[in-house]
Amino acid sequence: MPSAGSIPAPTIRGAAPATTLGGDNLAQVSKIELYRDTVLLTTLTGIAPGANFTFEDKTAPSAASYIYSAIAYNAQGEGARTRTQAFVGVKRSKPVTDVKITEVSDGVARITWTAPTQDVDGAPLPAGKVHYTLVQANKSALPVIVDSLTTTTYDWAVTDEGQAMANVAVIAVTDGGSSDAVASAMIPVGKAYGLPFKIPSPERRQAGSPVR
Questions:
Q1: Residues 77-109, buried b or exposed e (16+ Cβ, 10 A)?
Q2: What is the distance between the alpha carbons of residues 20 and 12, in angstroms, rounded to a whole number?
Q3: Could you report the per-residue pLDDT of 165-205, keeping only the tens digit for each?
Q4: For the chain, percent helix, then strand, then coil, each to nearest 5?
Q5: pLDDT tens for each residue of 143-168
Q6: Which of 85, 93, 96 is nearest to 177 (CA)?
Q7: CB half-sphere exposure, 143, CA atoms < 13 A
């Protein structure tokens, strides 16, 4: 059984052929070869025609897509190769939720969010296999604020002078790629600018002078 946070080895499942290409019952299956791309993983023997088989590919490098294939043999030779494609690693995550932004001091915004628990297919995400990228959502080029975060909170120094608008999007990243981005609200951060001008008095008067 895999340990917590580990990625289970991909399991190949199939059934030995039960009939010939002509539709006659097979008397025997001499062997079945299993491949990952062009790599021969194992040769199965002693499998009866029509019987199920399984094999765990414990040596598959993670974070890649592979073509798995099987070739059955009998006394007459090699049968047709059957293929399937599979991704090995953690699939794309569902998006984060509950993204919030608050100003915690002048010019500094704190972003928090709730981590996803499932991949895009609804399977549980292994612990420790998701990290996060934060981008400026109110900029057209979506400049990166920080990436490779493993926590669900971040303090961002938005500005050290005056005031700026802060709007952050959070992206969950796994072996399988990036989730959809989820944006916070947009808030002003930093000290507000003072009034840019003073309203002068229309005329100077001495204290106590009459108002005409």
A1: eebeeeeeeeebbbbbbbbbeebebeeeeebbb
A2: 23
A3: 999 999 999 999 999 999 999 999 998 866 554 545 544 43
A4: 0, 45, 55
A5: 999 999 999 999 999 999 899 999 99
A6: 93
A7: 6
